[in-house]
Amino acid sequence: xxxxxxxxxxxxxxxxxxxxxxxxxxxxxxxxxxxxxxxxxxxxxxxxxxxxxxxxxxxxxxxxxxxxxxxxxxxxxxxxxxxxxxxxxxxxxxxxxxxxxxxxxxxxxxxxxxxxxxxxxxxxxxxxxxxxxxxxxxxxxxxxxxxxxxxxxxxxxxxxxxxxxxxxxxxxxxxxxxxxxxxxxxxxxxxxxxxxxxxxxxxxxxxxxxxxxxxxxxxxxxxxxxxxxxxxxxxxxxxxxxxxxxxxxxxxxxxxxxxxxxxxxxxxxxxxxxxxxxxxxxxxxxxxxxxxxxxxxxxxxxxxxxxxxxxxxxxxxxxxxxxxxxxxxxxxxxxxxxxxxxxxxxxxxxxxxxxxxxxxxxxxxxxxxxxxxxxxxxxxxxxxxxxxxxxxxxxxxxxxxxxxxxxxxxxxxxxxxxxxxxxxxxxxxxxxxxxxxxxxxxx
Amino acid sequence: xxxxxxxxxxxxxxxxxxxxxxxxxxxxxxxxxxxxxxxxxxxxxxxxxxxxxxxxxxxxxxxxxxxxxxxxxxxxxxxxxxxxxxxxxxxxxxxxxxxxxxxxxxxxxxxxxxxxxxxxxxxxxxxxxxxxxxxxxxxxxxxxxxxxxxxxxxxxxxxxxxxxxxxxxxxxxxxxxxxxxxxxxxxxxxxxxxxxxxxxxxxxxxxxxxxxxxxxxxxxxxxxxxxxxxxxxxxxxxxxxxxxxxxxxxxxxxxxxxxxxxxxxxxxxxxxxxxxxxxxxxxxxxxxxxxxxxxxxxxxxxxxxxxxxxxxxxxxxxxxxxxxxxxxxxxxxxxxxxxxxxxxxxxxxxxxxxxxxxxxxxxxxxxxxxxxxxxxxxxxxxxxxxxxxxxxxxxxxxxxxxxxxxxxxxxxxxxxxxxxxxxxxxxxxxxxxxxxxxxxxxxxxxxxxxx
Lengths: 443, 451
Prior knowledge:
The structure holds two protein chains of two kinds. Helix content of chain A is 38%, strand content 24%. Chain A is built from 13 helices and 19 strands. Chain A is α/β, with parallel strands linked by helices. Chain B is α/β, with parallel strands linked by helices. Chain B folds into two domains: 4-205 and 323-436, Aminopeptidase, CATH 3.40.630; 208-320, Alpha-Beta Plaits. In chain B, 40% of the residues lie in helices and 24% in strands. Chain B has helices at residues 3-6, 9-22, 24-35, 45-57, 113-126, 130-135, 153-161, 170-176, 233-247, 288-309, 328-342, 362-368, 393-425, 432-442; strands at 63-66, 70-76, 79-89, 93-94, 107-108, 137-145, 185-187, 190-192, 200-205, 208-217, 258-265, 276-285, 312-319, 347-355, 371-372, 375-377, 379-380, 389-390, 444-449. At the A-B interface, helix 7 and helix 8 of A face helix 9 and helix 10 of B.
């Protein structure tokens, strides 16, 4: 039996020499960015790339998602390596789709690449048979919680229940036989040449808000109108007025956009729509802030004499990376790029549905550099180091899989046994479903 | 016919004019003295003493202490007839920074009420000459009313809670107490600073209004250490004011809506989340119907502020003033005297629709009896501003007194024929009892718990 160190050397070397298809997948996907649950071309390209490794692909999971499995030489834990299919609308991004404005300004295309790279590495001769357990390549749609109104329509039409891809995978049972999960996300943050590990993300609920007023001529008869835009304006002011009530440690973030703000300047707006997230570092913080946001939204309607319809949708749970898993991954990242290029990340304001998975099982969501720009989601966010973002990230995950599943999967079993999941799958579904509400108010 | 009755009206008026002219220095001095000692509504103790003393000296010892500081003196003439009231307002407004402002209260005569009191005394002196007593029929009442400026709402609400007031302005309360029950018609002259105007301005109307006394109630907490434990009442008030501003586009121009207010308590310490914020506001418009509609919108805005913050709210909605309805026939008697005394170019007649936007409790009186509220252009500066001062005391005090006294002479001469005609033809919009009842009915206290 080969030593864990040897196996990791083999995996790493093999990715260096055979990893080009992973980079190719990433750059191909970069060229046709698609938003969540609409990743048709991306899904096809990914499925083809996985099949070219000789693997079977189960497709059409949660609309555009898929899975494939690499079996080890003996039974053991099942480890999911995840990748996200979707882009997000970022007008002005150099690779934005001219029609939809979708762009890979969050570099999910590199996740597809680094997942594939890890698979390539684990397929190096002699590796899988030395591992006890299996690896599931899990390709999920719709991590960016965008186009809420459209996705909500898909929900009401019964095509999905959850607006995010991973909660939908959980609901569909795709995580039922997964014991450990990991995914590596690209970031523009320091270190550009290395990795960011650990760290937490906020959770969120999403809201879709419709103000109904009364239309009238804005110059000739404003007294006959009820201005829905003013209602939204007051709601946003009310949201702002409560910011001092959020505890620093709760990391509350509320940042609405107006998706419809009136039809013509010379008519009093009677239909104004907003989308917002309510983020927080704990479920209690999210719930409490969400109540305050609802008050402000209702107050907007009350102030102008209009009506507000508030749809609150289950979002994502806070990210809680497993410490043992973080240590294993960190050591591999340090071996690849040097310890001075691996930073411990802290509390982060963004959210990801990897958070949901970390509430259910040991999981990690490390970051890799190789991108430049103001921040993720900015129009100038581009990947400039595919070797790092795809190949090195893939190597670190594959090497961590080797750590977990070699030696009879003793590390994997230890990680699983020392982890205390925050909730079961059924508790998770109850919790998320309880966030769903659709109510109409005049005050 | 007695010899007294044979004196013609011109001679009577000449005697009245002479008496007022003869007292010019005295009544201007009185006005200036009051100017130097401004007192806000329902606290006009010193002002009331000065006025009561001067009325007594003029031969009409008043009943005092009506509606706290108000008073009424009556002069009864030989013949039987109606009672015409001449009114002066006792109170100052608040205008810190005004040259006459009281250092403690900020009260200042930035609305010229002090000169009304000089004119009131002058009118009493003029109508005290023997020639008048023997020729007129009926009575003249000399009434000093407190608190025309609807300010210090919290203090007045406290007086009401203590049982010392029923309605919160001077004329309103004096009507409620019956002080106007034996009055058939009433007039006063208010100063104006419109330089382009001729000496007297007759006609026009004023806005109706309601007064809001609003308490936003939150929860105190350390503003640095535990803001999450607090509920910020100041934010609730800020949101309410922003919400009101969003409603402005819905106010119809012809209604001359005015919504404005002040924050009289905005927190007690910067490092504590404000738990109580008090707002005194006003909603004005040309008609009560319009005011009630806008007031309902504004009340929703207060509620919205409280709802957004999860604060509580108490709104006291206090019926304010009714629109001024100058009696046309009354106005024409006054106007004729202005023209006769000061010439054609001394008079500006305004259309009934002209509305400067302000409000007065003479409006309330004008809804229950024939009333007249002309202006004398004797001031300069901005009304209620720090630069509003009487530039011409002779006009403000002496000319006003002459015009009012001679108007009374005309009204009550010839067995008070003119007064009787005006009273008989006047159609008040409500009786006194109806007025008092409607003011009581319209006073509402609303409590609201947001969130």
